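Key idea: predict the complex, not the pieces.
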Amino acid sequence: MTLTEDGPRAATAPHEKPGMRLTLRIWRQQDASAPGKMVDYRLDDVSPDMSFLEMLDVLNEQLIMEGQDPVAFDHDCREGICGMCGVMINGRAHGNGLHEGHPQTTTCQLHMRSFKDGDVIDIEPWRASAFPVIKDLAVDRRSFDRIIQAGGYISVPTGTAPEAHAVPVPKKDADFAFDAATCIGCGACVAACPNASSMLFTAAKITHLGLLPQGQPERDDRVVNMVAQQDREGFGGCTNIGECSASCPKGISMETISRLNHDLLGALRAGVRPKS
Amino acid sequence: MVTVTTQSGQRRAPKAAKTSSVFKKVVMAVSGIILVLYLIAHMIGNLKAFSGREDFNHYSEWLRTIGNPALPGATVLWIIRIVLLAAVLAHIWAAVSLWRQAKRARPQGYVTRKAVAQSYASRTMRWGGVIIAAFVIWHLLDLTFGAVNSEGHDGSPYDRLLASFQNPVSTIFYAIAVILLGMHLRHGVWSATQTLGQSNRRREVTVNYAATAFATVLTLGFLLTPFSVLFGLID
Ligand code: HEM
Ligand code: SF4
Ligand code: FES
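Result:
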């Protein structure tokens, strides 16, 4: 096999030793209503420098050449910033936790050097009733968008942006808000959670906006409505197991969940109720 | 996140929407805390067995007469029992309801799934809880009502204690349940702190150590009495 894209190392140079041989076991499912199953594929010359998605590209080229249906998977930036990619790799979301000391990352930032010759790699879509499979490894995550629509925003007048220094923010709060704001909405937290709960995602947004002055006016309504929406979408309830945070490519902390609960209890005590 | 524009419109709201998942967790945490407070008192009370038959029976008698003569008979004991029963029912309702919600949230599981963070304690909350509930029923039939105790209801509390724990099978069942309870509380204390919004990055480590320390002390405290009976230190 050769790579047609100009990846970091396009074709295997002649002096290099041949790449890894891998067996991929991939979930194939025609559409949301069809039953799916795991299907085995062989790849014979995988460079350790390829990203995981490049490896799937190679597989797809091979499948297209053979006249077969390529494997559908989501991706966009391939830089670990957009949140589009994400599959279960050997039972771990984005492959996070595959190795001790491996940095938590996105599927697109996982490289084949994390695997070795002869490996069997199981690849499955995120599993949650709120993330129905569209095809193969691609799932519909619009439930996340609806959680955001329920309150994950601030209302500000449009027009010229005000002077940033006009509203001081304590450094500690700014840092924590920024950490929480790094959530890219990939859904790995839901995929990894034994309860299929979206708590870490929602908590990241609550923390991000709730720590900043601009987030204050809608703070109570936000938490009440976002939590109501995540229940409505059919996500599970959080039992503080911690799989989410350990699988999150951005390392969103469990503290955000405590903050969400704190804000929610405060808002409910103040009499705020979800919009129906 | 960029969204996919394909089929599947707004899905019907599942039943879970009617009661918030966080509300259930708060019910679980508050009822759990009530039970924990009771357990601390209960564990300390059990250690009374070390001060002998007379003291132990007397303590048991006292439990039935707290507040006398201002309050008639076992009023206080019954209030405690009713609060505990309500807490247990609320706790189980929340647990079962979240369990079912989790099942609905992932009807189809993974072919391959490897945990990266969960502890044994957090994984056994549900089935462990069921075993603890079964144990509590047996435990009440054994020591409170004497129904499954060889001393029966007519023996003194101290006699029932000896009859139960001189039997190794019974002591081992007790030990398993208490160790499961310890693990339940190891995760439970941490989880309740999170649920009530009292944890943060700075406290997280402390809360976890405190949960482990508390669960260990409580477990050992509960194991001390039955094993002392089994090995004849209390007779
Ligand atoms: C003496 C008896 C018990 C005590 C003291 C106790 C205590 C607790 C506490 C403090 C929590 C943490 C609340 C939270 O997560 O916010 C908890 C959680 C839980 N308990 Fe219990 N519990 C007891 C019995 C039971 C029983 C009988 C069941 C099963 C029917 C049960 C099932 C659960 C479950 C499923 C959770 C949630 C687990 C989680 O947060 O991951 N518990 N319990
Ligand atoms: S919290 Fe982490 S795992 Fe969850 S959606 Fe955000 S980035 Fe992904
Ligand atoms: S493709 Fe954008 S984060 Fe992976």
